[in-house]
Design goal:
Elements (H helix, E strand, L loop, with lengths): L4 E4 L5 H12 L3 E6 L2 H9 L4 E6 L5 H14 L5 E4 L19 H7 L1 H15 L5 E5 L6 H4 L13 H19 L4 E5 L17 H4 L1 H7 L10 E3 L2 E2 L3
Helix pairs in contact: 3-5
C-alpha cells in the first residue's frame, strides 16, 4: 500500500504543527510549510517521522508556486491538503473599521487557501482519493452568531469572522466544482494557540481532532461539510 502524503500550511506552530505531527505519527509523508524558513525547519526537525519543510507564504502567489514545484519534484501526488495558515485581525467594532483594515486578513485567510488549493490541484488529481481541508472557525458561522445561546460572548467585529465565513463559502464552492474530491471545512474550537493568547480551553490535540478525522476518513466520507471534533456544525 502506498504511503499517504499530506501538506499542511502554516505549520511551524500551533494547530498546523500538531496536525503535521499527528499525520507523521500515522506513518504518512508530510510536507510542513511555513513562511518563516528558520521556524519551519525547526518545527519539522522536532517531529518524528517523514516530515519535510517547504517554504510557503500563502499570501504570495510566487511563493505558493515555488512550493508546488518543490513538492511536485519530491512526490507524484498529494492525498491531503490542509489549508491551515491563518491570521487574526483587530477586534475593532464594525463601525470603527475601515476597508483597508480587512485587506491583510482576507489576503491570508481567504485568498491564501485559493492560491494554495489551485497550485496543488495537479498533485491532488493524481491521488485516488484527494482531500482538501480548510481550517475555518465557529466565528465564521452565521448560525452560531445568530444563536441566542452565544449572544454577547464575543463583541461584533468584521475582520476575522467575515474572513472565515468567506472561507466557508469557498469550501462549499470547491466541493461542488471538484467531483471525486472531498473538500470540507473544520472548526477547531476554542483551542489554546497564539491567535487567542493561549486562552483557549482545548488542547492542540483536541483542536486537530476534526482535521485528523477528515484526513483519515474512508473514501465514502463527506464533502462540502463543516465539522468540529464532535461532528457536523452549522454554516
Amino acid at each position: 500500500m502506498a504511503v499517504m502524503t499530506a501538506l499542511v500550511t502554516g505549520a511551524n506552530k500551533g494547530l498546523g504543527r500538531e496536525t503535521a505531527r499527528r499525520l507523521a505519527g500515522l506513518g504518512w509523508t508530510v510536507f510542513l510549510t511555513a513562511r518563516d524558513a528558520e521556524r519551519g525547519r525547526e518545527a519539522a526537525a522536532g517531529i518524528d517521522g517523514d516530515v519535510t519543510f517547504v517554504e510557503l507564504d500563502a499570501a504570495s502567489a510566487e511563493s505558493v508556486s515555488r512550493a508546488a514545484e518543490v513538492v511536485g519534484a519530491r512526490t507524484g501526488r498529494l492525498d491531503v491538503l490542509v489549508n491551515n495558515a491563518g491570521v487574526g485581525a483587530p477586534a475593532d467594532r464594525p463601525e470603527e473599521t475601515v476597508a483597508e483594515d480587512l485587506r491583510g486578513v482576507f489576503e491570508v485567510n481567504v485568498l491564501g487557501p485559493i492560491r494554495v488549493t489551485n497550485a496543488f490541484l495537479p498533485l491532488l488529481r493524481a491521488s485516488a482519493d484527494p482531500r482538501v481541508i480548510m481550517v475555518s472557525s465557529g466565528m465564521g458561522s452565521i448560525a452560531v452568531w445568530n444563536d441566542p445561546r452565544w449572544k454577547g460572548m464575543v463583541p461584533p467585529m468584521l475582520g476575522y469572522p467575515a474572513s472565515k465565513a468567506a472561507l466557508n463559502m469557498v469550501t462549499a464552492q470547491y466541493a461542488a466544482a471538484l467531483p471525486g474530491f472531498r473538500v470540507n471545512a473544520v472548526d477547531p474550537g476554542f483551542t489554546a494557540t497564539d491567535l487567542n493568547g493561549h486562552t483557549g480551553v482545548q488542547t492542540l490535540a483536541e483542536g486537530t481532532d476534526a482535521v485528523l478525522a477528515l484526513a483519515t476518513a474512508p473514501p465514502s466520507g463527506a464533502t462540502g461539510g463543516f465539522f468540529d471534533r464532535n461532528g457536523e456544525v452549522p454554516w
